[in-house]
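Data availability (excerpt). The following record was deposited with the supplementary files.
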Amino acid sequence: MIAHVGIYTKDLERLRAFYENYFSMTSNEKYQSKRNPGFESYFLSFGDGTKLELMTLTTLAESNLLPAVGLHHLAFSVGNRKKVDELVIRLREDGYSIMSDPRMTGDNYYEAVVKDPDGNLVEITE
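Predicted structure:
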């Protein structure tokens, strides 16, 4: 199941208002990372199911290391932490680039990140 789709934006509040106003999505409280200063995000939803993660990172926009706006990653829920761990082992054994080993994130997700064959970021969550 797709857990969420992550989109970077230069104007977090404007993009959040767009999805709330035109698509009746509801937002959680703004997350501000203590580990990565300048990173802020919202999760928006229609209720249960797939969510939309809106993100901004001031240093990202300034550095041009990655696109400052647009699609950033897909996240798939595999059910539990054990399945996350097992899938990461399998992907590593099959030669895929693991960008982040399983861990708890600051916004309370247990996740790992892998690159798909085209280099797209895929988060694997519980």
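Summary of structural features: The mean pLDDT is 86.
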